Amino acid sequence: MRIALVYNQKKEEATQQILSDDLDEPPSSQGKASPNSPLAPLTLQKPAINQVSDMYAEWDTLETIDAVRAALAEVHDVSLIEADQNAYAKLQEALPDIVFNMAEGFYGASREAQIPAMLEMLNIPYTGSDPLTLSICLDKSRAKEILTYHRIPTPRFYVVNDITEIDNNPVQFPCMVKPLHEGSSKGIYNSSIVRSRSELLREIIIVLERYNEPVIVEEYLDGREFTVAMLGNGNNLAVLPIVEIKFDTLPQGVNPIYSFEAKWIWDRSDAPLDIFSCPASLTPKLKNEIEDICRKAYTILRCRDWCRIDVRCDTEGKPHILELNPLPGILPNPEDNSCFPKAARAAGMSYNQLIQAVLLIAAGRYGLIDISPLPHINN
Ligand SMILES: Nc1ncnc2c1ncn2[C@@H]1O[C@H](COP(=O)(O)OP(=O)(O)OP(=O)(O)O)[C@@H](O)[C@H]1O
Ligand SMILES: [Mg+2]
């Protein structure tokens, strides 16, 4: 097939800036962070992360884009199209059989929908979810409203558009304060867990000012955390081996959350944290509960082909959906700790097999090829 790989490439200077400006020493020892451990006091200075330095955190590096290209090129004829403001004309001219979509888009809460919407207009098949699902999942409150309607557990929450709304808080402390529509832990720092009105006010102001977007305040769940890679559609939907986030590998004294510092500063490919356990050690009951809510969430939100779903347990050990990532990160280097490729490896799939499987699943959905069964997955 003639494939166009559509992508947004991280700007080198911004990457450099993340590495230099934001390198923050972890606080001194407070005892290791672990699920259910008491929250660390706010000993961390907020890193000097500014809008420029995390602006491109969701975009892909040249290394990732090239790894996806190489995986597809083993089987197909691949061209690259950068998802910039000329993307529509380039897609119209190229008219590929199918697009492998990894574009994050520019600006706004619906940015991930931009390329899929163009492709729908041009009637070009593409991998992954449609514009509606991508937009809903990027707006954490819209996704959680739908999950709640369908009685799928998700932490209680409210949305703050303006600082005057702070006292409408129906959520008990401690809570998490997050930007409403970001990913890659943008705006989620060690200090984003708040335990008092003054901390809540401080964090809300920071998010409102830095990201110029509404804030979601969520009940903080202190149990184990997992991320679940889903692959396929309908009756051929597979749950890959579940990844657990091991908070006890974070620097001593920090809060047990997978924050921006944890993803991008304390865990580096030259000094990786051993932060994932895959397959997670689970009782059959917990494994079934996690898989069940993830299958339901995937289906209800009409995800297609693939998605990574974040899950965290409450104090009683009951799993809740934190959020869905229908455009999951796929860093190729195992040292970079990327959850979807990690889960695929545990299922016996190489990186190239994973990328090729996503393409074939999408092509099968459009009837471009006979719907082939999923590759063998060890779960
Ligand atoms: N309500 C919550 N209770 C406990 N921990 C939470 C909660 N919300 C977020 N977290 C922690 O913060 C991390 C990042 O939050 P979240 O997944 O919402 O951000 P994101 O930027 O969308 O992440 P991703 O990199 O997966 O796109 C979670 O992995 C979890 O460790
Ligand atoms: Mg997440």
How would you portray this structure in words?
This protein is of the alpha+beta class and about 375 residues long. It is built from twelve helices and 13 strands. The longest helix has 17 residues. About 10% of the residues have low confidence.
Specify the CATH class of the domain at 135-139 and 222-365: Alpha Beta
Helix/strand order: EHHHEHEHHHEEEHEEEEHEHEEHH
Name the average pLDDT: 88
Sheet having the most strands: 6 strands, antiparallel
What gap, in angstroms, lies between the N and C termini?
30 Å
What is the number of helices? 12
The general outline is: globular
Helix content: 25-40%
C-alpha-based Rg, rounded: 20 Å
What structural class do you assign from the helix and strand content? alpha+beta
Instruction: Report low-confidence residues grouped into runs of 5 or more.
Output: 13-52
What percentage of the residues does DSSP assign to strands (E)? 15-25%
| Ligand species | adenosine-5'-triphosphate, magnesium ion
Supply database-style keywords.
alpha+beta, D-amino Acid Aminotransferase, Chain A, domain 1, six-stranded antiparallel sheet, four-stranded antiparallel sheet, 12 helices, 16% strand, binds adenosine-5'-triphosphate, binds magnesium ion
Summary, kept brief:
The chain is of the alpha+beta class and 379 residues long. The chain has helices at residues 12-21, 51-55, 62-73, 87-94, 114-122, 131-138, 140-149, 197-211, 260-265, 284-300, 339-346, 351-365, and strands spanning 2-7, 77-82, 98-102, 157-160, 175-179, 193-194, 215-219, 225-231, 238-239, 243-245, 276-277, 306-313, 319-325. Bound molecules: adenosine-5'-triphosphate and magnesium ion.
